[in-house]
Amino acid sequence: MNSAWRQIRLLAGLAALSILAACTTVSPLRTPAPLPPANVANNVLFRAIGLVGTPYRWGGNTPESGFDCSGLVDYVFRTEAGLALPRTSREIAALDAPTIARSALEPGDLLFFGHRHRVNHVAIYVGHGRFVNAPDKGGTVRLDELGGYYWRDHYLFAKRVLTPRMRAALAAD
Fold it and tell me: Is the pLDDT of residue 28 over 80?
């Protein structure tokens, strides 16, 4: 009887391993950057969208004080992804994060805008050609479209910071 239970337990263990093995995936060979875990990206998006309407304030980095563009991005990524980003849009743009083609944008990617290849604005991509940003003095945090008049002409590039490597490098204390 004892050997019969051993065989049953062995077969059950092998069945469980087979099921687990079937659940694994093989990543494609040519991925520009790993996609973020869905729950972290979703948390970033919900927090960013939840801040729409918060007043703009140059140098601001909290909902209570208002936000400038980099303060908004830092606040959202610090509170929802545990990342400590640099303070200015140019410093964030200089991070050694993967640059993402416009056609490959994913929610949570950072968008950089400027003039003559000089970054002066950062925003959070939310999907479907839309992004959250703190655009200008006297305004509020808002949703805008990449195809909008100003934005389409000033878009420079995008970066993905919600990768395992970047999350390890930028982990907030």
Answer: no
Residue 7 lies in a domain: no
Report the SS3 class of residue 129: coil
pLDDT for 38-66, tens place per residue? 688 889 999 999 999 999 999 999 999 99
Pairing of strands 66-67, 99-100: unpaired
Task: Let me know if residue 91 belongs to a domain.
Answer: yes
CATH number of the domain that residue 92 is part of = 3.90.1720.10
Examine the residue annotation and report whether 133 is marked as an active-site residue of this protein.
Answer: yes
CB contact set of 106 (below 8 Å; sequence gap of 6+)? 35, 36, 41, 100, 125, 127, 160
> 32 — phi, psi (to 5°)?
-60, -40
Q: Catalytic residue, from 39, 42, 133, 154: name it.
A: 133
Residue 106: inside a domain:
yes
Catalytic member of 2, 115, 121, 128: 121
Structural domain boundaries, residue 89: 36-169
